[in-house]
Structures are given as structure tokens and as C-alpha cells.
Amino acid sequence: MIPTIPTPDELLDKGFSRGKKQADLLRSQKIPKHLKGKRIEERRVVTSCQVIKDKLKSIIDAVPEIESLHPFYQDYIDITVGVDDMKQALGGLNWAYGIITQLEKEYGAKIRKNPSEKATAIQKQAYGRIASVVGKIKKDLDFLDFAKQNLRNMPTIDFEATTIVIAGFPNVGKSTLLRQITEAEPQVANYPFTTKGIQIGHTEMHWKHIQIIDTPGLLDRPILEMNDIEMNAIVALEHLADAILFIFDASETCGFHLDNQYNLLKQIEKIFSDVPVIYLFNKMDLVEDAEYLNQYIDDEENSIFISAIEGEGIDKINKKINRIKKIERNFDEEDDEYY
Ligand code: GDP
User: What Gene3D superfamilies does this protein map onto (predicted)?
Assistant: First the structure.
């Protein structure tokens, strides 16, 4: 998404050395003596400006327009590096591009107008100004380099697919389940505020593409304890989820009492208020008294007893998943509820 970002010195070196090379090519050419010095310095300044401008433009063009991205990515970029800072940095590069275009014209003309003896001095002036402009965007180049490092390994989301987000306390069996209901190894990508990253598994059901997302470290702990930024990381997921798979560890061997697990569920339901939930009671192979679970079941129709490790109940989950409808969210409209 973001190409390699040069430092100001690298950018100037590249421009000036190419300028020198191109100018040197003129030295062996037959040019009237009174014009030669001017031609050489003009070529030097113009080439340097163009090389620097080309590099700036290639960076500006390679970074996608943030507003054109899916809200999930807009949020992702905002949480990870800050959308405003990103816009400001790109604005800085645009500014430098404009000024260098002016300098190229201004100093090209100045060299042409003056006698050859003055050409070198004018070229030096031009270089001084170019260097000063490039120096002024140091913080922008630094920021884009920081953004490049931080936006590396962003999750690849298929926005056409039906998307299911897994939630539940640690060790309830989320990743075991993800592996049971998806094909191949899940994709592991970075996600803000999750140390283990986000895991995305894919499966096809009746020609429908389904992606299942597990977010270790995010939807597995009390939401009331989260800070604003972590909440934003959850809101980004809200743009994607067509359903939530909430996993209870019915055996409580994960170390969390069912009362607490139920509380987490309620918090998640509050945040994802428009998203349907499928309730999975996992590790049933370890449970003797299933009666006890009744108090935690609000919606019998959408509750399934499973054993992820033994593959028990997976077919029932698949049947439910198959019926999930993609939530239509119109992000393009101006009066969009999110923006
Ligand atoms: P996560 O942290 O929620 O992703 O949980 P994991 O999938 O890593 O599972 C935590 C532990 O529970 C692992 O040791 C799993 O083998 C175990 N586990 C997961 N599902 C079941 C199950 O259905 N029955 C039993 N007995 N153990 C399970």
C-alpha cells in the first residue's frame, strides 16, 4: 500500500546525482561556448527537479485515497497511524511537488536569461532552495515510513463475503472451532491492540464465500475495561460482522465462570446490536449436567451444544451459518450512519 519511503537526504542524493550525470553528458557535445555553461546547469537543475518530483508523485499515487477505502480500512488506518496525520503527510508531499515544479521553471528561466558565467552560481542557489523544500517534508516522509511499517500485514478482508466474528473469553475454544469450520490454515494478520493478531479463516457454503474472524485479545475480555482506542478497534469490526459466534466454555475449564462469560456476551450484544448472534456451548464432552446451562440460554433456537475438539455439533453450526444473510451497509451515501 505504501512504497519504500526515502529520507530527505536520499531523495536529494538521487535527484542531484542524476542531475549531474545528465549534465555531464552535455560536456562532450558541441555547443557554442557562450551557451554551453548555461545548457549544462539548466539540464542539471531540471533533471534534479524531475527526478525528485517523480519520486514524490510515485509515493502520492501509490497511497490509495483514504476516503475511497472501505470503512473497515479507514478505521484500521485511523486506529493504527491516524487518518488526519496520514492526510497531512501526503499534503506535505503534494506541497513539495508544487514548489519544486515552480523552482524548476523559475531557475531554468533564470539560467537561460543570464550569461553562462553566472550559470553555476544560479544552479547552486536552485539546489539550496530544493534542499530546503525537501528538508521541510522530513517529518512527512518520516511519518509515511512509520505508517508503512505499521500498516504492514493488514488483514485482507473480502468485503463480498459473509463475515462472521468469533467472540468469547480466552481458552473457550475459539481457535479450535475456527480450524474446524474453515478450510486451510487461517490467515494471520496484524490488528491494533491484539498481540496475537487477527485470524481469518475461509470456507465455501453453497457457492457462498464465508470468512470467519477471530480476534484474540479483543473480543475476549470485558469491554467495560477498554479504552476509547480499543473500542474503535471493535467498531471497525462492526462494519464487517454479519453474525457473531459467541462461544461459552460450558465446562468452565477455561477458568471463567459462566456468569462472567454471560456478562461478556451481554456487553458484546450491546455493541453489535444489529448483528445476529449464534450461541455455542463448547466442551460439552466435559459437561455432565447440561441442565445447569439453561439459565444462560436466552435464545434456544440459536443455541448449539458442541465439542469443537471432537467435531461434535459442527454440522449444526454450518447449517446456521448457511442461513446468515449479508447485512447490507451502504457506506457510499453521505448521510451514512457511520460518517
Ligand atoms: P481460544 O483461546 O478460545 O482460541 O481457545 P483454544 O481453541 O486455544 O482452546 C483452548 C483449550 O481448550 C485447548 O487446550 C483446546 O484443546 C481445548 N478445547 C477446545 N475445544 C474443546 C472441546 O470441545 N473439548 C475439550 N475437552 N477441550 C477443548
Answer: 1.20.120.1190, P-loop containing nucleotide triphosphate hydrolases
Residues 81 and 224 in one domain: no
CB neighbourhood size of 134 (10 A):
23
Does residue 173 have its Cβ closer than 6 Å to ligand 1?
yes
| Burial environment of residue 190 by CB neighbours within 10 A (0 to 12, 13 to 18, 19 or more) | middle
Is the domain of 201 the same as that of 270?
yes
pLDDT digit string (tens) for 255-312? Answer: 999 999 999 999 999 989 999 999 999 999 999 989 999 999 999 999 999 999 999 9
Q: Is the CB of 229 under 6 A from ligand 1?
A: no
Instruction: Provide the ipTM.
Output: 0.99
pTM of the model: 0.82
Kindly report the number of other CB atoms within 10 A of residue 72's CB atom: 20
158 touches ligand 1 (CB under 6 Å): no
Total of domains in the chain:
2
- Provide the residue range defining the domain that includes 306: 162-333
